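Let's sit down with a protein and look at its sequence and fold side by side. Please make up or recall a protein chain and show it to me in full. Label the sequence line and the structure token line clearly, so we can match residues to local backbone shapes. Go ahead whenever you are ready, and we will take it from there.
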Amino acid sequence: MLDMILLFIGTTEIIVIGAIALLFFGGRKLPELMRGLGKGVKEFKDGMHDVKEEITGDKPEEEVSDEKKEQQPQ
């Protein structure tokens, strides 16, 4: 449902939303807010990935390759 709503947002609407945000928060505070929002989204995605790993029992490829390297005799 959200995807369908986002499909109908055009350039004009994005500009209006940006202008309103600029008026509310100001030019100095807006970059800080966007950085914080980006970090929050990244942490959320990392958390979702960790939960998915726990449920499925899958490990990332780099961890699997590290374990294979440890098991090989030198």
Observations:
- DSSP finds three helices and no strands in the chain.
- Residues 29-74 form one domain.
- The helical segments are 2-7, 11-56, 61-71.
- The mean pLDDT is 80.
